[in-house]
Amino acid sequence: MDHRPGVKTTEFYLSALAAVLGALQVAGVFGDESMAGKIIGAVVLALAALGYTAARAKIKAAAGPSAPKPEPPAEPPAEENP
Questions:
Q1: Helix/strand/coil (H/E/C) assignment for every residue in the chain
Q2: Is the pTM of this model over 0.90?
């Protein structure tokens, strides 16, 4: 399975595109400034975010648990000057 960072995935770019289109719809850029148009834009924004989150969660779950991060080396005790 491919474990790329989220920003390097197709899901990220498709979700970003859907979010931008939804935001433009809410702003009335497409000429529909009605309340229904704004609600549709907001729903598109929410679904884009949820879809991306679900897709990444599914990929991370399939990858299994992450390897534990190594602990930093312990600092040696400070030497006292006589």
A1: CCCCCHHHCHHHHHHHHHHHHHHHHHHCCCCCCCHHHHHHHHHHHHHHHHHHHHHHHHHHHHHCCCCCCCCCCCCCCCCCCC
A2: no
pLDDT of 76 strictly over 60: yes
Considering only CA atoms, which of 44, 3, 54 is closest in space to residue 23?
44
**pLDDT confidence bin for 81, thresholds 50/70/90:** low
Return left, alpha or beta for 64; rule: phi > 0 is left, psi -120 to 50 is alpha, else beta.
left
Rounded CA gap, 22 and 43, in Å? 8
